[in-house]
Amino acid sequence: MSIEETLKIKIKDSLKSEGLDLELNDIIIENSKTPEHGDYASNVALKFAGRLGMKPRDLAEKISNSIDKEVIEKIEIAGPGFINFFVKKDAINSVVKGIISAGDTYGRGAKNNKKVNVEFVSANPTGDLHLGHARCAAVGDSICRLYDFAGYEVTREFYVNNAGNQIHTLGLSLDIRLRQLLGEKIELPEDSYHANDIIDIAKLYNEKHPNEYKVGDEESFKKLQKFGMDEELEKIKRDLELFRVKFDIYSFETDVRANNHVQDVLENKYGKFTYQQEGATFLRTTDFLDDKDRAVVKSDGSYTYLMPDIAYHLIKLSRGYDQLIDVLGADHHGYINRMKSALMMQGYSKDTLEVELVQVVRLIKDGEEVKMSKRTGAGVTLRELCEEVGVDATRYFFVSRAASSHLDFDLNLALEQSSSNPVYYAQYAHARLASVLESASDIKIDENAPMLKEGSETELLKKLIEFPHIIEVSAEKRAPHMVATYIQELAASIHSFYTNCRLIDRDNLEMTASRLALAKAAKIVMKNALGVLGVDAPNKM
Predict the structure, then answer these.
(1) CA–CA gap between residue 434 and residue 438 (Å, rounded)
(2) HSE-up of 95 (CA within 13 Å, CB side)?
(3) From the CB of residue 264, how many other CB atoms can be counted at a distance below 10 Å?
(4) What span, in angstroms and rounded, lies between the C-alpha atoms of 462 and 89?
(5) Which residues contact 491 (CB under 8 A, 6 or more apart)?
(6) What distance in Å separates the CA atoms of residue 415 and residue 423, rounded to the nearest whole number?
(7) What separation in angstroms does the CA of 429 have from each of 79, 222, 312, 426, 509?
(8) Pairing status of strand 361-365 against strand 368-370
(9) Shortest CA distance to 470 belongs to which of 486, 458, 492, 488?
(10) 3-state secondary structure (DSSP) of residue 292
(11) Alpha-carbon distance 470 to 484, whole Å?
């Protein structure tokens, strides 16, 4: 249990004895900004004194007097009622041994038996992954890693839209390219897919199935179309693997639509929520959260995209998940309440589905926006970005800000080897510690770390103590950017410790043994934190 949690429990018990029963999350414990104000501070007396009909300073005094001094050196009341806690040095220093003992599991939450399904990327298998897909991939996978580290049971899912107009257009585009390849003089229509990969797939199909394609034959067309979709999907999988993203489940729209499943869902589960208007079928989503009712069947008898999507979400829920998370582009804002409403019609709570909207990305190079790839003349792809700046920088930059915020991705900064580059700054902190530990591999460390007392040592210790709480809160808020912020703060504390303290002093092995233990603990936490974002922690740079 961290010192912050210990203090929260002690304060909670004290307030309960006064007749006020709070949740632990209601009690805020902060790191004090200066040593003169102790190690931790709380405004709990100011916040809740009114409920008890007391003055804040009087409540602060009662809390102070009721807390045992197991880990506390002293408690001071400041100003109108702030409580400052001075923690015993051995209590703070003890985190070092705990981190080293836990290793890769430090910060990992206990299993909470909550099953979560996270669907993300879900790009149409008709072309390369571009910047929007890339940021969704980084955000979605980091949420999954965060959930997993926090103790959730996580399933990563990719929904393949392999039915509908986009797949038909893919088939038509391949048909034209293959016929061109076979010598026919024919132009590719404007509304077709013009990327070079369509030409490459047509060539590959001709190599594998020479002289097989029959123009105008429906079966031949479907075979070519499926071949193209499979090739595009495999390419997407390869690019995602490069990006360190792997899915547990690939679900296909054709499977959702098979055996009249969508029609069965509409008739048997949603019949009482529908009505007819101008030949179309509408769902009464305004009875729940939506601002207007939504069409599920068009006047021509075909489904809108919403109805198969509803059936798909019910399939996911049938697997026993406690919560569904959809990571979608920001243009899906209107989608949220209509899908929540559809699930509420089946008795699910409005919180069963949560949607993380990911804002757009602009690539900036030399102060100018980059819109087109020099290689293809089209939009910059995920693979190209990774090849230019590396997977680590790409992943880190994409999650460094809240998903709901627009992001300017500075290519120059991502390549810079300086403290201005947040990825380099964090990785260099880890590499520095690794280098020190390697240089002092012959010195036995003291995991009790009794000699740590300098300001930069204490600040680093307190930052290490924060990590489990950061994981817990970041997972609750689905906010990997909070981990990125923590990483920068941790890196700053590590660099300050490295600069201000002599880590290897062979004339003072007692001090060295404590500092090397702190270095080892900090190295473990930095690696664990970077791992939550899918970023490597190199030992050499």
Answers:
(1) 6
(2) 31
(3) 11
(4) 11
(5) 425, 426, 428, 429, 526
(6) 10
(7) 38, 54, 45, 5, 23
(8) antiparallel
(9) 486
(10) coil
(11) 10
d(C-alpha 98, C-alpha 147), whole Å: 22
DSSP 168-229: HHHHHHHHHHHHHHTT---PPPTTS--SHHHHHHHHHHHHHSTT---TT-HHHHHHHHHHHH
| Amino acid occupying residue 245 | V
Measure the CA–CA gap between 274 and 106, rounded to whole angstroms: 52
Nearest to 96 by CA among 536, 463, 500, 539: 463
At 371 the pLDDT is 82
Sheet with 153-160, edge to edge strand ranges = 249-252, 153-160, 115-119, 323-329, 353-358
Ordered domains of the chain (ranges, CATH): 3-87 (3.30.1360.70), 93-111+418-532 (1.10.730.10), 115-160+244-358 (3.40.50.620), 165-242 (no CATH), 363-415 (no CATH)
Which tokens in the block code for residue 335? 């989608």
Q: In this predicted structure, what is the pLDDT of residue 24?
A: 86
Tokens matching residue 195: 């990327």
Please give the C-alpha separations between residue 491 and each of 9, 217, 330, in angstroms, as whole numbers.
Answer: 30, 63, 32
- CB under 8 Å to 272, separation ≥6 — which residues? none
- What's the pLDDT tens digit per position in 257-287? 999 999 999 999 999 999 999 999 999 999 9
Q: Which residue from 231, 166, 153 is spatially nearest to 199, judged by alpha carbons?
A: 231
- Per-residue pLDDT tens for 153-174? 999 999 999 988 899 999 999 9
Q: Which residues pair with 328 in a beta bridge?
A: 357
Q: Is 75 exposed, middle or buried (0-12, 13-18, 19+ CB in 10 A)?
A: middle
User: Which run of H or of E encompasses 119?
Assistant: strand 115-119
Q: Are 76 and 86 in contact (CB under 8 A)?
A: yes
Report phi then psi at 486, rounded to 5.
-60, -40
Regions of the chain with pLDDT less than 50: none
Return the SS3 of 2: coil
The Cα 447–Cα 466 span in angstroms is 19
Spatial contact of 399 and 534, defined as CB atoms under 8 Å apart: no
**Residues written for the chain:** 541
DSSP code at position 351: T
Q: Give the DSSP letter of residue 377.
A: S
Cα–Cα nearest to 324, from 534, 120, 475: 120
